[in-house]
What we know:
Elements: H1 3-8, H2 13-25, E1 32-36, H3 44-57, E2 63-67, H4 82-95, E3 100-102
Parallel strand pairs: 1-2, 2-3
Helix pairs in contact: 3-4
Amino acid sequence: MNDKNYHKLGGVLQNTLDGIQRAHDLGLWVEVVTLVVPGFNDSNEELWEAARFLSGVSPDIPWHVTAFHKDYKMTEPENTPGSTLLRAAKIGREARPGCATSMLATFLGGWTNTRIPCVPIATSISSGALVTSF
């Protein structure tokens, strides 16, 4: 939720936010995936801002928080710890009860599936992700 960070990656935050809002307004199914990168977008403030924005669009939008892992050209920072994803999921559930999801399936128990009535969504760990701590 930091425009400066989006620019570093070649994007524009407002375009992303507008696209989420527009897709929802058109009645399209919307899910949001946030790659949580240590020191880049993992602060409580930034996670709360994302959760509040999504809740403002619709509390029914599933929010998947996923772990960064060093790969290819991005070998810094360190991998996202499970505890950070759990913190993000808790923020998501507090802001939008029942809709926060974590992609660390198996390891985070009841935090790994969205809970939206009549919309079964399962999550799984991405291939290649290495979980070393929680």
